[in-house]
Amino acid sequence: MDVMQLLSWACIVFTVGMFSTGLTDLKKMRETKSADNIQFLPFLFTCLNNLGWLYYGLLKKDKTIVFVNVIGALLQILYIIAYLHYTTQRRLVTSQTVAAGTVLACGWFYFTTFLPEGDSQLSQLGLTCSVITVSMYLSPLTDLVQIVRSRDVQRLSFPLSVATFFTSTSWVLYGLQLHDQYIWVPNTPGIFTSLIRLYLFWRFAAVNQSSSAYRSM
């Protein structure tokens, strides 16, 4: 197995593992028959991101990108359907889903109608997907500021932080091997944000445990 095959399998395993962390929320929704305290927009934005990268993979004829994002999109659609079933804010969630679908349809129409096939189409799609990916990686920074202030890491998911670190690292290495800046650049922030989250776990875990022990006495 050469380096590219190894990195390809690493991307598949770690990324599917990261997407599968949503199964915990799915299990919680089924057990409680409620979507309370579960955020909907991460499922929706991740689905849009998956579909964008799926299109990029198809244009680039990269089987690794295609396979990973097919699995990711299917899982996010499953989470979205479950959320729609259990939420009490069905009208709001439905309108958000319709709006996202409209944006996706407009984007697809633009890229297929107004851009010539070839490098121009691929580069603009890659840039768009990169911006979405970077924004998704940077979006938790506001939560991290609140965690530092409160010294409480209960709102962070340790498995997701670990999965994000290995997923981002594998895609950065994969993109560097392909000399594809649209793959390695947007995944670089994921390494730093996941390292920050892991540091916060290490820094404040003992504080949270001692506080829990104190409350239980």
Automatic annotation (TrEMBL):
GO MF entry, a single one: sugar transmembrane transporter activity
For this protein, the record's InterPro entries field holds: SWEET, SWEET_rpt
Bilayer topology: Multi-pass membrane protein
> Which Pfam families did the record assign?
MtN3_slv
One Gene Ontology cellular component annotation held by this UniProt entry: plasma membrane
Per UniProt, subcellular location reads as: Cell membrane; Golgi apparatus membrane
The UniProt transmembrane annotation reads 6-26, 38-58, 64-86, 98-116, 122-144, 156-176, 182-202
What keywords were assigned to this record? Cell membrane, Golgi apparatus, Membrane, Repeat, Sugar transport, Transmembrane, Transmembrane helix, Transport
> Which Gene3D superfamilies does this one have?
1.20.1280.290
Q: What does this protein do?
A: Mediates sugar transport across membranes.
The Swiss-Prot or TrEMBL record describes its family as follows:
Belongs to the SWEET sugar transporter family.
- Write the protein's name: Sugar transporter SWEET1
